[in-house]
Amino acid sequence: LETEEIILAAGCFWGVEYYLQKLDGVLLTQVGYCGGELKNPSYKQVCSKLTGHLEVVRVIFDRQKINLETILKRFFEIHDPEQTDGQGPDLGSQYLSAIFYYNDEQKKIAEDVIALLTAKGYTVATKILPMKPFWIAEEYHRDYYNQQGSLPYCHGFTKRF
């Protein structure tokens, strides 16, 4: 098994996880926080907008079944990459769109996918950032929509590719 991981931020992590975990080849998704300086922040601390963290989803995938480009294309189709102040009705710095990359190859793939969107006329607000520590979210946030038996209110699918 050849695995790879990427950390993605696209607003409320519940909806992002819901859609990404449905991709064939995605082995594991975890909701959490990334991008800030505070060690092991709580949801309440992140919501204060003082920690610098974003709500993120850690995605581990099987490279023999799915590639990063495919995952990023789906990422850009399940949120509005042009929104600069959050995602949908969720406003604030913790809901910004970002890709946290582990290496230069991931950074280039992210830049290439954004270039495809830009060529289609989109003004992409998504930031491409070097990896910072990932902190897993509290238990009650994990696999939220499958646990609740409900559907995301902030995220849907919009064909962009």
Descriptive key words:
161 residues, six-stranded mixed beta sheet, alpha+beta, 5 helices
Could you tell me how far the N terminus lies from the C terminus, measured between alpha carbons in angstroms?
A: 28 Å
Pattern of helices and strands: EHEHEHEEEHEEH
How is the largest sheet built, in terms of strand order? Answer: 7-6-1-3-2-8
Label the overall shape. globular
Strand content range: 25-35%
Could you say which structural class the secondary elements and strand pairing correspond to? Answer: alpha+beta
Folded structure, characterized:
Helix content is 27%, strand content 26%. By secondary structure, it is α+β, with helices and mostly antiparallel strands. The chain is built from five helices and eight strands, in the order βαβαβαβββαββα. The model has no long low-confidence stretch (mean pLDDT 94). β6 (97-101), α4 and β7 form a beta-alpha-beta unit. A six-stranded mixed β-sheet has the order 7-6-1-3-2-8, covered by helices on one side. A two-stranded antiparallel sheet has the order 4-5. It has helices spanning 13-20, 43-47, 68-77, 104-119, 144-148, and strands at 3-10, 26-34, 54-62, 86-87, 90-91, 97-101, 127-130, 134-136. The radius of gyration is 15 Å and the shape is globular.
